[in-house]
Queue: 2 jobs
Job 1
Amino acid sequence: MNPEMKPPVTDMPAEEFRRHGHRLVDWIADYLQHSERYPVVAQVKPGDIRKALPRQAPEQPEDLTVALDDFERVILPGVTHWNHPRFLAYFAITGSGPGILGDLLGGALNVNAMVWKTGPAATELEEVVVGWLRQMLGLPEEFFGIIMDTASVSTLCALHAARERLGLSVREKGMGAGPRICVYCSDQAHSSVEKACITLGIGQEGVRAIAHDAEYRMDPTALEAAIQDDVRNGLRPCAVVATLGTTSSGSVDPVKEIAEIAARHALWLHVDAAYAGPAAILPEKRALFSGWERADSVVLNPHKWLFTPFDFSAFYTRDPQTLRAAFSLVPPVYLTTKEGDQVHNYMEYGIQLGRRFRALKLWFVLRYFGQEGVRQALRYHIELAQQFAALVDADPDWERMAPVHFSLVCFRARPRGVPEDRLDDLNAALLEDINASGQAFLSQTKLRGNLTIRLAIGHLRTSSQDLTAVWELLREGAARIVAR
Ligand SMILES: *Cc1c(COP(=O)(O)O)cnc(C)c1O
């Protein structure tokens, strides 16, 4: 080695890091405090941001100050603000100060927790944090937990494990061998179930969309009938997915009855509680989840309604042996470890080899707010939703479209004198106007064939004043459209 050789490039010196870091943290603190200053929905057209940026990376180094300026000038106008207190569309992905700081620290450590050895603390903090959360949710102790990126991937892993448990050797032989497999979910289930079946080679034709009842819950009688039908036709029922808190209306499948049916037919029961799962932390909401403790697997997203910045999906299974059998390979030599069964090597329980140190952010969130703070925040959101629903119910020109179990309200304008066949256009125009105004962001669904407005509460900064203002916007907007 030539002792004269110096690295031509070094990382940012500590002093400079400190300077930019402080500026950035100050910016973030102001942004979080005043996220309502920005239009909720980015007021840009497709291509606007791309056009404002150079086609090539800079040849020579630039001062990061310039990049930070460009961030404010070019990037920020193209941001739709999920942190805005009137972001009420989809399911608000809710971050929080402690969660952001946890994420920052995770980035700094840059640990890859593929096996215990490569991240002992990351692995064990993950065990501890998913264990804390499991206790808060009231799930039994035998549930093994792992952090995934999204509910979509958690459900994919669940269905892969479900198929592995059938013992059809699909893992070894591929899809060619064996009978056709079926997966059951309600016709209100999230598209990630269908996507998982497409990915796994079960195919769209292997997905049975079971009818729902008047409250958008899976009809267990129809489920039983569909399973019997498939068995008669020589198909192989594999898994049923119950949704607790559907994306469209927040409905709750009767998981107790579904668990009975799943047990009778030896099906894997996967519970998708991606959005509503955190509500199980509240004793007064636990009854809605009754039966989920019998599931083979459960997914919920702290990045949806537990103040943890995206991404963080908590996946639990009572059958980690099967999950591991589904994914584990004899590790290549360079990943062989000597700790054996004393430790979890999380790479064996999912698709990814490399895994981020995600546990830090939920750890900070739970410590900062405490279980009591979390309960209060969830209760407040549910109370806000109930009050908003009461406004809708009290007004003869509006109609509520689904029961409010959690923090999602589904409703539509139905002004007296407007014919039924004009209502979809009216509500679509209303949504368009409000979202274009930058003052609030709401999304839509179809319920009983009718265009329905969804208002989902999940942000720590959303207040009753925000919802009063949104209610006024809606009423004024509807009146204006009726007048034209
Ligand atoms: C949002 C949602 C999903 C998908 O969540 P990702 O983490 O984005 O994959 C799945 N199921 C339900 C019920 C959801 O609401």
Job 2
Amino acid sequence: MYRSIVGIVTLILTLSASDASGQDRRPCPVAEAGTLVLYGDIGSPIVLTEADLLALPQTSVRGTPHGGEPSDYAGPRLEDVLAPANLPRGPQLRGAEVTRYVVVEAVDGYRALFALAEFDSAFRAEVPILALRRNGAPLEAEAGHFQIIVPGEMRHARWVRDVACLRVARDPGTN
Ligand SMILES: Nc1nc2c(c(=O)[nH]1)N[C@H]1C(S)=C(S)[C@@H](COP(=O)(O)O)O[C@H]1N2
Ligand SMILES: [Mo]
């Protein structure tokens, strides 16, 4: 009950925030449950199935959910999930490309932003994953099919549950 009230309040705040911001209004093109849509500044949207995501190299990350036990989360790195979008990586991610970012969008409308460089293992020792498993089992229902896990990040506001879409964008600058 408490969680659903929090969810509704979050949704209202999210909707009013997006009304004010203008450019973030486009809805996430939610595909079937259990699929992930890559869209935005990448040409045509790309739909990935759970099988596609499980076929990528899987990384394990130790994390502790709020009020829960330390757990092993496993799934592909976001940098590998985004590979079909052909974004610059490593030495190519420099200059104007460093203004690229990814908004992770959930089924409940919750959103969190990462700079593309935060996903890049050439930049950081540990990079976020799109977890499909917790302790070897599918995620609990409230986490949906996919959940972002950010190694070492102490607050979990970007550990987006029930991820539906990854929207790729870049800062338009002030001109
Ligand atoms: N889809 C979705 N993911 C979300 C949220 C949300 O409201 N919706 N809240 C975030 C916040 S603020 C926190 S602190 C963590 C809490 O998740 P946990 O209770 O599983 O640790 O989930 C994050 N992921
Ligand atoms: Mo939070």
